[in-house]
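Appendix B: complex inputs.
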Amino acid sequence: MKRRISVALCLAVVSAAAIAAGTMGATSKATATTLTVWLQVDAQSGWPTVVQQANDAFTKQHPDVTVDVQYQQWNTHLQKFDATLAGGNTPDVIEMGNTEMTKYMAAGAFADITADKGKFPNSSSWLKGLEQSSTYGGKLYGVPYYAGSRVVIYRTDYFKKAGISAPPTSLSQLTADGKKLMAAYGAKDKTFSAFYVAGPDWYSAMSFVYDYGGQIATSNGTQWTGALDQPNAIKGLTAYKDTFLALSRASKTQDEAHPFPTTPFAQGHAASFLGPGWQYGYALDPKAGNPKLKPVIAAFAMPSHVAGKTMPAFLGGSDLAIPAGSQNKSLAEDWIAAFTSTAGESGIVKAGNIPNSTSLLSLVKGSPGTQLARAAQRTWFVPTAKNWANVENGNVLRNMLTQILTGKKSVQAAATDASKQITSMLNAST
Amino acid sequence: MGTNIDAAGAAYALRRRRLSRRTLLRFASPYALLAPSLLVIGAILAYPLYFLVRLSFQQYGLFQLIAHKGEWIGLHNYGVVLHDGVFWHTLLRTVVFTAVNVGLTMVLGTLVALLLVQVSSFVRILITSALVLAWAMPVVVAVQLWYWMTNFQNGVVNYVLTKAGVGDFIGHDWYVSPTSALGITTSLIVWGAIPFVTITVYAGLAQVPRELLEAAAVDGAGAVRRFRDITVPVLKPIFLILTSLSIIWDFGVFTQPFLLLQSRPNTDYYLMSIYLFEKSIGLHEYGLGSAIAILMLGIVLVLSSFYVRQMVRMGDVA
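Resulting structure:
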């Protein structure tokens, strides 16, 4: 009997350990003289020199402090951050996507820096949208870092060879041009895409939705309602599906970071793709891209289905926040100030972004700058609900797109399901 | 007289006390020796388990995480999980997935072990080295290799299948349907689990009395008969422990499917561990996640109970 119990107990313990192991994570603890900074990989691939310059400037100011910059992935950084919140060893500075801020500010995750606003360069002329995403209950919890809009990055040589003389000015023109490109290159190269877009890339898909007058969700002030099942949104999703099936041979299941669209583009398997501005430079990167494309790369703002207009672009952006548990709040502020200095922002702009301040907008020029600025005139943003991050983390929109593109569900059925989920998630009490 | 009685009584009491001290010592010493390991197990397993159970009765979201204090809500979390259709679909999918994985692992692992007995020592060393290498491969590295090999644009699997004339696999996306995606995951898990099964079974095969096999052969028993009636009964304890361990591992397997299917997050692809992860970590609902973990623990115990009972029965005989 005793043996029986011990065997059973043994198995119970082993299985418990196996299951518990799946739910745990850990990060290393920082010492007092190390400033831990979490930035997204975009900085690592797009503007590493800006980070270096900020570190140098900061170390000159504080010679006894070491800066430890740790690069994070968009799809896992919040999970890692949560683990540090539970363990009490948060980083001192963290980059947050502007869509991710609200939930964390509401939960009290970040230090209130309202009183220190003057410490940060150009803070009187910060971009309104970014400053709003850093503000909760009238208090400031983050510093605008940069904004980004999206453009179509394309190869002029492919377009010319397929007999296309000018970039398209309407969605139907883009489709017609794309079909010409598919005819010219698609038969030889089975992986060729005229207009490469990863299937579950919801930033691109929602641009179609907003272009046709649809929305992700609407609010009456107290209640949110998912709106993807509405006729205009369905029109947009259908247009996205048609465009994807005609012009893109990207995966219907892998997101826009696996791989980055710049990879097939740099390898010659894509004539164009819709991406954030920094990917223009990234496509030419000697390691990740192909520098030889420099003479033939160009950009145009994604055209709307209404000729002459641009399609609304997702107004992405990032803020830098100081976790409430950080022991080095003042040092963290100094580092952020060094990083978002005018010099730093101009480096970030050169990499293909929009600066955090209206006083620096004149830096946006050349290619792809002018096109980015043009795309930035018509933008859309996610619903400003406290629980929006749950919709993103729950992959509701990606699931819906995969279902639509694989034909598993009709556009209407998939959109109705997603809409119901969004309604319940945005109104949940927690 | 009275003093005599007193003296005898005192002597008796003394003897008894000495005796009882000795028995006590004899009784206590194993526990004293066990104490340190019990303490360690208590600290690293019992306490987290207790914490997990407590968490499963609490509302514990991002706000509570930062405040380090949950709100007691009784069985609410369990109710939410059991009313979630995704939970039941995921459970069914995971049970089938586990059955296929454990079955393939055991059958293939045993076949390779039987092969090892038959081949020359040079080939045996070759196979064993290959097995150990596969075993020593860190899971994350193996996932990355699988990911490259099955890449839909330039993966070697598509290339080889096309060149071999199986069909046009250029641009074929193995992850476009849950069945195919979980099939790829299965191949990775089975590949990684075979070495353990093979090496353990091979070690067990050394216990099978050679003369018994020879006698059976002389009596005209074929290879299948000898395996069924001699090898399997001798190896039964090993098969039972391997099967129940495999069930526990495969039911809760996380790393391989999560990394391989990471950017294909459709609920149609969920296994229990991924469901648990998405609910608890993805949505910051740690109380809910704990309830799922407890339910998983119960399910694993039910699934492996058959094998545990078999093992216990053998334990009673031994």
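The two ends of chain B are 57 Å apart (CA to CA).
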